[in-house]
């Protein structure tokens, strides 16, 4: 889950940008929808964010190794404290 401080600031996006993002993530065309207000799209994206998941093992091995390296560095720092 993304920490609120690092989450996208959807309120700053234009209505068109919000609709494009939803279209990309749901594969349903929202770009032609004119009947809804901007806050609807913001709520929709936040809901999609909460449901978003990805499989760690689908990442390239090089990326996984970088993440492991970062995690092991954090563990070392905690153990030496």
Automatic annotation (TrEMBL):
It comes from the Eukaryota. This is Uncharacterized protein. It comes from Salinomyces thailandicus. The lineage of its organism: Eukaryota, Fungi, Dikarya, Ascomycota, Pezizomycotina.
């Amino acid at each position: 889950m993304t920490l609120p401080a690092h989450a996208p600031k959807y309120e700053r996006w234009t209505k068109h940008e919000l609709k494009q993002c939803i279209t990309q993530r749901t594969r349903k065309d929202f770009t032609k929808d004119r009947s809804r207000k901007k806050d609807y799209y913001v709520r929709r994206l936040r809901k999609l964010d909460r449901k978003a998941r990805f499989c760690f093992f689908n990442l390239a091995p090089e990326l996984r190794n970088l993440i492991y390296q970062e995690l092991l560095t954090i563990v070392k720092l905690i153990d030496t404290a």
